[in-house]
Design brief:
- Two copies of one chain form a homodimer.
- The first copy, chain A, has about 350 residues and is of the alpha/beta class.
- Helix content of chain A is about 45%, strand content about 15%.
- Chain A is built from twelve helices and twelve strands.
- In chain A, strand 8, helix 11 and strand 9 form a beta-alpha-beta unit.
- At the A-B interface, helix 4, helix 5, strand 2, helix 6 and helix 11 of A face helix 4, helix 5, strand 2, helix 6 and helix 11 of B.
- Chain A binds a DNA duplex (30 and 30 nucleotides) through helix 2 and helix 4.
Chain lengths: ~350, ~350
DNA sequence: TATTTTTGTTCAATCGATTGAACAAATATA
DNA sequence: TATATTTGTTCAATCGATTGAACAAAAATA
């Protein structure tokens, strides 16, 4: 309750006997303002604890220096790490981010987009909810002239900048490794085929099986939301069938954890009887017993590159070409798939 | 790139042959505007896809309708659930939230506060970082006239609205239950004593031991950051000592998970040889083998009440009294502390 | 009919910062 | 000395919405 007054450029102008516009120019290092005045103004600004009014300058300049980030859920190391890195890069460039989560719900996602457009963010960096198939709201972002960058979950037809990993190749890494461990009957607990990244993982999985002349059984590709309960349910389902796989490739770590729980509860030796590989390198994968092999998606890089893609677009508004940055996945081999590490 | 034009009240006014101010008043249901005009204006607004310019109205009204939420980390069910509920309540009341995380770092926290004050949020709802002992930045929020509500981790001397649980009582629930299970040598993997909530848990633990005439061993109270590696390290330390506890009460679930891992790695039967209880009811506590007993902190309620405390303060700016809302903790008994459930 | 009240709208200032144009003073050039 | 150039500052409009005061027209009252 001490100094509620909040000083403005007017106050500074009054103290120094200048006009507000001179003060504004001095603070913005306008070339026509003398060094002496600039110095005096900046000192007075500090004296008066002056903070520029963000709203007024945003209004005048027509930009808010705010960037919205929409992620499916916050409670995931991958997404929170991406956001952290987006924030790091953008803060350095004078932007602040507004983080929102869709909870994997299309309706929530639309609402978040509306909110972000309402508060006039300069751009939106997003990863789409599992549910999302209708791209209308994303078209809306573009049609309003707001920049849009997608990462991880993004559709090509939107024709915007995208940062992700090579999901097709990830599956090859997984299958190649499992084959090298002697596995021949590899099942895939997959994400939904209507989402590009999961579709790519499925495609890579199929092609890799074919590459190694392994049989492709369609009831060994089971799509789901990849929550922990999905992993549990589907693993149980696989065990209930007459023929067991000798390896399971899960398109998400959380679901892989669920699968692992069921395997252990059934006293199945991992990896000896059934090997297991997840996806995303969530921290807990290194902490389970046995630890879970997984794919590193380079979340830090993704965040950094997504932020840089946004900045580049802001700085070159007339740029027409679209960037698609595809990072190389990395297989992290742990106990759940390697007899040697056991 | 279709309709970049973004219509304003001017456009509506031009279409209807009115002045911008009449349009503004019509949209805000001013009593002196005829119903006929109001209807026409509202229809035209829809026709032109008019969206009020948030920045200008915020500037004029002197409020942004934005609320900053600072949490130590996003990657925790407790905090993300609180945020979700804050958001739910505030969205209904026309506010949007900006979520930021301090990563438990004091420096980051200060920076986040500066950012939020810069973009002129109407209030800040925060839970303090583990590192924070200097309250200067929080004083700053108040002195700028921005509303402040704390939850979970908050200090009384700041004299602001607070929502949390009764941490002292939580420890009693834990100790009472452990005693009922026949435990007599209860250790406490604690949070730092300089943070009020952890201090309260320690105090409750001590008093509860005394209540049951159990010996209090000071080297069985070990403070830490409560990360997973802290739980592991301290559990190992307890096992390396000559006398083992027969129960361990951990002030955080993540650290409890680390402790559980070490117990299992050492083939110690949980709860028969050593019982274990965590804190916060993180989802994974029900998924481990054995599942971990823990304290439910009512994160949904905390979020809702914190948001409501903010709203009440905004609506009654002259209100002087401070609300301290203390919820009752609930002990969730699972396998790690109950021989019956094993 | 004259006067007051009510109703519907416009006028003009405002929020705080920004910016091109205008202007005056100082300095340089012809 | 007269003119052109540079320099430092002020003027005034602007971003879009809001709001109290002012005003004119319509309706109600005396």
């Amino acid at each position: 309750m001490e100094n509620k007054k909040k000083s403005t450029i007017k106050d500074i102008a009054a103290v120094l006997g200048l006009t507000p516009s001179a003060v504004s120019k001095a603070l913005n290092d306008h070339p026509r303002i003398s060094d002496k005045t600039k110095k005096a103004v900046k000192e007075a600004a500090i004296q008066l604890d002056y903070q520029p009014n963000y709203l007024s300058s945003a209004l005048r300049k027509g930009k808010s220096n705010l960037v919205g980030v929409i992620i499916p859920r916050v409670n995931s190391h991958f997404f929170s790490s991406v956001v952290e890195n987006i924030e790091k890069v953008l803060n350095l460039n004078g932007y602040n981010i507004i983080m929102t989560q869709s909870n994997e719900l299309y309706a929530k996602e639309c609402q978040e987009i509306d909110t972000l457009l309402k508060i006039q963010v300069d751009g939106i960096i997003a990863s789409m909810a599992n549910e999302t198939t209708d791209l209308e709201y994303y078209q809306k972002i573009k049609s309003k002239g707001t920049e849009l960058v997608l990462f991880d979950r993004g559709e090509e037809e939107l024709n915007v900048d995208y940062v992700g990993i090579d999901d097709y190749k990830s599956s090859h890494l997984v299958v190649d490794h499992l084959v090298s461990q002697g596995c021949k009957r590899i099942a895939h607990i997959a994400g939904f085929n209507h989402i590009r990244i999961y579709k790519e993982r499925i495609r890579g999985y199929k092609d890799a099986l074919e590459k190694w002349n392994l049989a492709l059984k369609y009831n060994w590709i089971i799509e789901s939301n990849l929550r922990i309960e999905d992993g549990r349910r589907i693993m149980q389902q696989l065990l209930d069938a007459p023929e067991w796989p000798d390896a399971v490739y899960v398109a998400g770590d959380i679901a892989a954890l669920g699968a692992l729980q069921v395997l252990l509860e059934n006293n199945i030796k991992v990896p000896e009887e059934i090997a297991l590989i997840g996806f995303s390198d969530e921290p807990f994968t290194s902490l389970t017993q046995p630890s879970i092999s997984t794919i590193n998606q380079h979340s830090d890089q993704i965040g950094k590159l997504a932020a840089e893609a946004f900045l580049e677009r802001i700085n070159n508004p007339k740029k027409k070409t679209v960037n698609r940055i595809i990072l190389q996945p990395e297989l992290i081999i742990r106990q759940s798939s390697s007899k040697l590490l056991k």
